[in-house]
Amino acid sequence: MRNGTLDGGFDGREPIYVQIADRIRHEVLSGTLKEDDQVMSTTQYATTYRINPATAAKAFAQLVDEGVLFKKRGIGMFVSPNARALLADEGRERFFADVVEPMIAEARMLGIPLTEVANRIAEADITQADITPADRVAEGERR
Amino acid sequence: MTGFQVQAVDLSINYGNTVAVDRIGFTLEPGKIHGLLGRNGSGKTTLLSVLAGLRRPTTGRVLVDGVDPFENARVMAGTCLIRESGDLIATDRVGRVLDFAAALRPDWDADFAAQLIARFGLSLDKKASALSRGQRSALGVVLGLAARSPLTMLDEVYLGMDAPTRYAFYDELLADYVEHPRTIILSSHLIDEIERLFEGVLVLHEGRVLVNDDADAMRGRGASVTGPADVVDQFVATLIVDGVRALGAQRLGSTKQVSIFGDVDSDTRLQARALGLEIGSMPLQDLFVHLTDSGREILR
Questions:
Q1: Domain boundary at B158, B176, B206, which?
Q2: Which of A50, A54, A100, B172 is exposed most, by the fewest CB atoms within 10 A?
Q3: Contact flag B281-A6 (C-beta cutoff 8 Å)
Q4: What is the pTM of this model?
Q5: Which of residues 38-67 of A touch B (CB under 8 A)?
Q6: Which letter, b or e, does each residue of B218-241 get, where b requires 16 or more Cβ atoms within 10 Å of its Cβ?
Q7: ipTM beyond cut 0.95
């Protein structure tokens, strides 16, 4: 798990605790972390990524507030039973603003007709049509 | 929380006519890892030597665990300052240096010291004078960590260490701090590598306190605004009205990037995005360089 570099795979664009929280959210969404799984302790996080334990604790506090994680006193932090559904709902809400709108802007800038973009999406939909969402997650992990 | 609290009250330290520390006041919370940052000559080492009771303030005072540390046996027994020089007796062998520390330090952990000696590849039979610069620094780290002092101060202690040794130092420091929380002050002018270890940050500049803040809060306060020059200028002008400071600007063709320091809320960030501007966070190292480059204006 430990990375060869000091930054442990975090870049400088966002505060580290925001990046830790994002990483855990992503692991829950992708199914790497399953519901009721125990997550690494703040101590393990701190020593693995060479960050102050208080910084790691901030990420966990944020995720507890959001309902993604819950604390079992004296044992540790666990993934909430509905965490994945919760994150998927939020992700769907933000998807168009965060992904689709910038994509449209970028396509316009590059002079790619939106019909071409739409066709490409339709193609992807046909090739993926007989794969269930769970298989897609598994495929994502293999990549 | 275990560990000593550290306070300075209206503290000045002069060397002859030179003012090294100029009427500063601050409090460092106990049980945290604090970064003491400043350029060369900013007063870091002078401040540490007063906190360690090696010299007295010219005026004002310092309080360690609530009392003046100078010639206070209880506080001195719990205070450990490792200076860059190592303060080693050249003819002593490493083993004897450890024995001496064991005799002086009430919370000395000999097993941990032995483990660190092995981790850093130091030989107990070697004379202090025969150690390389990096090995002397590593021995300093062994002395500083194995003492488990409620106030542990490491002054530029990693100088001369190669990268694997520095990483080993960071790992050992964090693992031991988690097991045995205490007040740790790490002074540094090289910030990039070490800044993630800090919970608090105290920045000295020309003998004054420039910043004393939670490290994550400070990280959140530095940002860069990038975009078309005229849009950036207008946007930054509105931020300045709200108390944000512009630290510096760079221009590349029609694109401009302004470094800012201050609280930028999420509404303002959205507003920037709507204007086609990019707001990026700034590494603590860059923020430090900007702040200490233009430090005088910030202090005013």
A1: B206
A2: A100
A3: no
A4: 0.82
A5: 43, 46-47, 49-55, 58
A6: bbbbbbbbbbebeebeebbeebee
A7: no
